[in-house]
Amino acid sequence: MPFNFDLHTHSFFSGDGVSSPEDLIAGARAKGLHGIAMTDHNTCDAVTYMLEKGLMRLDGQPVDGFLVLPGVEVTTADGHLLCIGAELPYLKGKPAREVCEIIHARGGLAIPPHPYDLFRAGIRFSVLETLPVDAIEVFNAATTLRRYNRYAFKYAQVRNLPMVAASDAHQAAAVGTAYTILNTNDFSVRGILAQILKSNELNQRYLTPRDSLRKTWNNWLRLRRRKKIPELAAKDSGNGGPRF
Q1: N- to C-terminal Cα separation, the chain
Q2: Quick one: the chain helix, strand, coil %, rounded to 5?
Q3: Which of 161, 204, 234, 242 lies at a C-alpha separation of 20 to 30 Å from 32?
């Protein structure tokens, strides 16, 4: 049975997200999705929140016909790296290879998002070549320039890696703009992770100009908020500045 999954989404637990986990789920359901991966920047707080609210289950089974995959988008020393299917400790600034190893030790999949995107901390080719990644995000609905998606697609072909598509939504209206169609009879976290590693269909559509502008605006507001709070600004400075 085919299941539609957006494997890259952000809630207000990300510094630049604006929607609650509940709103993300509602938006995904409204677009016919069967699940999402919760991949906030450098935090799994949304996963903890959803487990407490009964929106996720510890046994990896769906809730009311909808499945949320635990995850996180780590700002590694080499660029952004998605962990899908596992929770991680705070790893911001760690080498990408080390983060890959931790992801695998915890049973998750390591998937570089928007690689080649020069404006969004995508992991570069020279580093990608050295990483034991499980798949490549070859279509990111929010990519800065569309050619970056083409580069990622060609790289996945050359390396014979599974491909995924995702919205990179930072607000509920953008969820499901792009998604991956996973054909499996095991509708659980374990079953979906196993299917990601196989050949899958991709639904590829870009964010509307309005959604893209809103994402840029949210990023700008986030940076302004952090500059006004001395301890947050100092934290950014100590980590080499914000990378997302």
Answers
A1: 35
A2: 35, 20, 45
A3: 161
Domains and CATH numbers, the chain: 2-208 (3.20.20.140)
CA distance 35 to 32: 9
Non-local (6+) Cβ contacts of 165 within 8 A are 7, 137, 138, 139, 140, 141, 178, 179, 180, 202, 203, 204
Q: For residues 175 and 28, give the distance between their C-alpha atoms in angstroms, rounded to a whole number.
A: 6
Residues β-bridged to residue 114: none
pLDDT digits (tens, 9 = 90+) for 94-122: 999 999 999 999 999 999 999 989 888 99
Helix pair 230-238, 209-228: axis angle to 10 deg: 100
- Beta strand pairing call for 179-183 and 2-9: antiparallel
**Taking a C-beta distance cutoff of 8 angstroms, is the pair 31, 203 a contact?**
no
Q: How far apart are CA 117 and CA 124, in angstroms?
A: 8
Return the number of other C-beta atoms located less than 10 Å from residue 173's C-beta: 19
The reported pTM is: 0.86
Which token pair is 178?
Answer: 């792009």
Question: Which one, of 162, 143, 128, lies nearest residue 8 by Cα?
Answer: 143
Structure-block tokens of residue 201? 């269909």
